[in-house]
Every structure is written in structure tokens, then in C-alpha cells.
């Protein structure tokens, strides 16, 4: 009985890693498609999001079944409860990758990245991919040092997010209104993607420490202040 | 023992209602502050968000304690698992109300609502408040007809969200870049607030039906297409 149970817990963990890998592929493709206006690649991301959603539901069902049948306590209970929360965040990360792909498709055959922001969004995209890879590694190993690295990468993304607003609000910005809207939404998506990863990393830390935190990793960027300072 | 248990479940439900009431107050104040450039009111919302976060953590701790001590099954288990998920969404709704307040504070003493969008954002604000009130009622009564009403209100908010982009991307738009950024972010916040309520309403439906869904209520708005059609 205990063996079956630990088999189930391992199954939960390996499914989280699997979903995180799918999310990593999604953000890799989405940011590449965004950077190269590759609408075929964008479509792939959009189509594949349903798989992430399905895997997340399956994982939730498994977690609830474990709660019902095995009545875990202590650390085992924390593993299962965390899995429920982590799957919700992974699913949101998949949605955000999809949104970046949708921006690409919407602008096609025009470029989705507004002029003057190519290098910024290339960096943000690469950092989002880095975040997704680190997250997968963290879920695989539970190594909290990776959580720390992940937060550092998130800080870099936040800085780039601020720099998008600085650029857009500077005198040199010559983008049309549509470019301003695109830059605003795309930057927000890239930033939120990483926020969710940080939020997951805190849930992994909870497994180690028992300290619960909320999802409040969404720092407000005072985008209007930087331009006038 | 069973009596103590049902007491706990009622406690879970009444805490969800309490947090939803706090979120309702937050969005009422935030949208009012946004519409009237009332920075004092905005500060109140920003300060009060910590209380929502705290209440959400307390509720999660209670839910986890119930799982550990009572090992609920069947519907009782669904109540507890749903509560964990609903508290996460309520907490996010509080964050979004805070973001609307932060936009207000950032622009003060200027108006946060860009010219030409006053009536649109007034309507969106009122509908967000309506959504929050319906959500509280839904959590109190579990009446799924309210869930249906809530989705209808969300549809109206989605339409207004699209209309913001139509306005901003029309030839008549004379807003500066900062106004475009503000309109984009503010509209996205108002829309996401309602999305989370819809997502919660599905979790309440799960209590009745046992059908689990994911959080994918975030429809991508093709903001670039509408302007050229």
C-alpha cells in the first residue's frame, strides 16, 4: 500500500516535470516565432496549448484521487497540495506562451516586434526560455539553489520590462499606436511568464520549509514615472 | 467528530465569502479612484491588499489542516480542494484591483483615464464591481444561475475591452503614447479581473458536478484586426 502510494507521488512529480517541459517548448517556439514572424511556428504553439491544458487537468485529477484514497499527511500532503497549485501556474504559463504566439499571428505578415525593440524582446524571450528550463530543473531536482537563480533571471526580465516602457515613452519613440499597444502587451506577457515561474519556485520551497506564500509576484511597474525622470 | 468537521467546512466557505467581500470593496474603491483620480482612495486599496493576501494564506492553511486531520472524501474533498484554488484566484483579483489603484496613483494629479475613454472605463469599472458582487453571492449561495449571469457580465466586459483597442487604434485617437500604454494596461486589468471571477464560477460548478476545468478563461483579443476591418 505504501509502495503504491509513493509510486503515485513520484507520478505526480514526473507529470509536473513533463508539463514544465511542454511549457518550455511552448515558450521557445513562441518567442522564436515572435522574433522571426514565423506564423507556422506560432500556430504550432497555439495548437499545442490544448495538450498542456489536458495534462494539467489529468494531473489535478490524479492529485485529488491521491487525496481521496491515500489521505496523505505531513510532507506527502504538501507535495500533493503544491502539485495542484503548481499545475495551475504551469497552465497559465502555457496560456501566456500562446498569447505571444497569437500576437505574432495577428500581425503577420507584418513584424510583431515594434521597431526599436527587437533586441530588448530578443533578450526577454531568451530569458523567459531560461526561466522555463530552470523551472523544469527545479521541479526535477527540488534544488532550491535553482530557485534563487530563477529569481535573479526574473529580476533581469523585470528590468527589461521597465526598459520597454522607457523606450516607448521616450522622445525618440516613433512607433504608431498599434506598435505601442503591441509593445505594452508583449512586454507584460513576457514579464508575467517569469512571475509565474517565481511563484512556482516558492511553492517548491514550501515543500522544503512548510511556509506557504500567496501568488503575489506581480510587481506593478510604474511605467509613467521613468520617462519623466 | 463529524460535527467539528462540518463546522470546519462551513468555516472554509464563510472565509471565501469574506475574502470575496474584501475583493469587492477593493474593486469598488479602485475603479472609483481610477475614475475620479482620487489618490487617497487609491492608497487605501493598495494598503488593504495585504489583508486580502493574509486572509488567503489563512484560508489555505485551514484547508490544508482539514486535509491532514479529517481526510475528507467525495464532495467534502472537492469543497476543500476548490477552496484552495478559489482563494488563489481571489487573491489575484485583489492584486488586479491594486494595479488599477496603482495606475491612478502613478498618474496623479493627472487623470489616469485617457481622454475619450472615460465612459468606456466607467462602464468597465461598474461591470467589474457587478462581477465581484455576483461572485460573492455565488460563493454564499452556490446558486449556479448566478454563475451564468456572471459569464454574461464578463462577455460585456470583453466587448468593452475590444472597444478600447478599436478606439485607441482609430484615426480619431489623439492620445499620447503614455495614454495608449495606460489604456492598454487598464483595459487588460479590468478584463482579467472578470476572467478570474469566471474561473472561480467554474470551480463552484465543479462542486456541483465533479467536472474539473482549467483556468483558461483568458481569451486573446485580436486588437490589431478590429481597427482595419
From TrEMBL, chains A, B:
Keywords: Cytoplasm, Phosphate transport, Transport. It holds the Pfam family PhoU. The keyword Glycoprotein does not apply. It comes from the Bacteria. It is found in: Cytoplasm. Its main location: cytoplasm. Residues 17-103, 122-204 form the PhoU domain. InterPro entries: PhoU, PhoU-like_sf, PhoU_dom. Homodimer. Belongs to the PhoU family. Plays a role in the regulation of phosphate uptake. This is Phosphate-specific transport system accessory protein PhoU.
Amino acid at each position: 500500500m505504501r509502495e503504491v502510494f509513493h509510486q503515485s507521488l513520484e507520478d505526480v512529480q514526473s507529470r509536473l516535470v513533463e508539463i514544465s517541459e511542454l511549457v518550455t517548448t511552448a515558450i521557445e517556439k513562441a518567442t522564436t516565432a515572435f522574433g522571426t514572424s514565423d506564423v507556422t511556428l506560432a500556430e504550432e504553439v497555439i495548437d499545442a496549448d490544448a495538450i498542456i491544458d489536458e495534462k494539467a487537468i489529468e494531473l489535478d485529477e490524479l492529485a485529488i484521487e491521491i487525496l481521496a484514497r491515500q489521505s496523505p499527511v505531513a510532507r506527502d500532503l504538501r507535495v500533493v497540495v503544491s502539485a495542484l497549485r503548481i499545475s495551475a501556474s504551469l497552465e497559465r504559463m502555457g496560456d501566456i506562451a500562446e498569447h505571444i504566439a497569437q500576437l505574432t499571428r495577428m500581425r503577420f505578415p507584418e513584424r510583431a516586434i515594434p521597431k526599436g525593440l527587437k533586441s530588448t524582446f530578443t533578450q526577454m524571450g531568451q530569458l523567459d526560455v531560461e526561466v522555463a528550463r530552470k523551472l523544469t530543473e527545479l521541479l526535477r531536482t527540488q534544488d532550491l539553489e535553482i530557485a534563487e537563480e530563477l529569481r535573479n533571471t526574473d529580476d533581469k526580465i523585470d528590468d527589461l520590462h521597465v526598459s520597454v516602457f522607457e523606450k516607448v515613452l521616450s522622445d525618440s519613440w516613433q512607433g504608431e499606436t498599434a506598435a505601442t499597444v503591441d509593445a505594452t502587451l508583449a512586454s507584460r506577457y513576457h514579464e508575467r511568464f517569469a512571475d509565474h515561474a517565481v511563484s512556482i519556485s516558492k511553492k517548491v520551497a514550501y515543500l522544503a520549509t512548510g511556509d506557504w506564500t500567496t501568488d503575489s509576484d506581480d510587481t506593478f511597474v510604474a511605467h509613467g514615472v521613468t520617462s519623466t525622470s
